[in-house]
Write a structure and sequence with these properties.
Strand order of the largest sheet: 1-2-3-6-7-8-9-4-5
Shape: globular
Distance between the termini: 73 Å
Strand content: over 45%
Number of domains: 1
Length: 171
């Protein structure tokens, strides 16, 4: 009887170890992506279009979106900055948007560690920035959600949509 119990425990351990290895080997559909500059780091889940209609369907207009997949997008400023004309202190913020056809409302929120945007309403009193930015159309489809930072803007591209958020690092 002891041998049977020992064998069952061994099999259970082997199965658990195999399941964990399989889980670690399976790539995420929306892996974590990073954009890093000297003064800013952006961490976001990077979904792909995969033949879906993105804005207006997968990402509904008029609703808060985590601006990525899985955990909410976070932006860390290592120097004070101005984003969309609004001063931003150094620190890490959760980044949300409320997309519409012609403009997006961008939001920086002090509550970190949010999964998606499901509890944003509980923390909207921690918003430090809300600003509207115009939407631009891309000529070709951007398959993966992409964040870029240049000397003048934070740019987000996905599907055939792009927004350019004015950005200045204050020295």
């Amino acid at each position: 009887m002891k041998q049977i119990i020992a064998l069952l425990l061994l099999l259970a351990t082997c199965y658990t170890t195999h399941a964990q290895e399989q889980q670690q080997q399976t790539p995420l559909l929306s892996p974590r992506a990073y954009v890093k500059t000297k003064h800013i780091t952006i961490s976001y889940g990077q979904p792909s279009k995969r033949n879906r209609v993105i804005f207006g369907e997968l990402v509904p207009y008029g609703q808060v979106w985590r601006a990525g997949a899985n955990e909410a997008t976070e932006i860390k400023f290592r120097k004070p900055a101005t984003l969309a004309g609004v001063p931003v202190d150094t620190g890490t913020y959760t980044f949300f948007v409320i997309p519409a056809e012609k403009e997006w409302l961008i939001i920086l929120n002090k509550q970190l560690g949010q999964w998606g945007a499901y509890e944003y309403d509980k923390h909207k009193d921690k918003d430090v920035l809300k600003a509207a930015v115009p939407v631009q159309s891309l000529n070709k489809v951007q398959e993966k959600l992409l964040y870029q930072i240049n000397k003048k803007a934070l740019i987000i591209k996905w599907d055939k949509t792009s927004v350019s958020i004015p950005l200045t690092i204050n020295h």
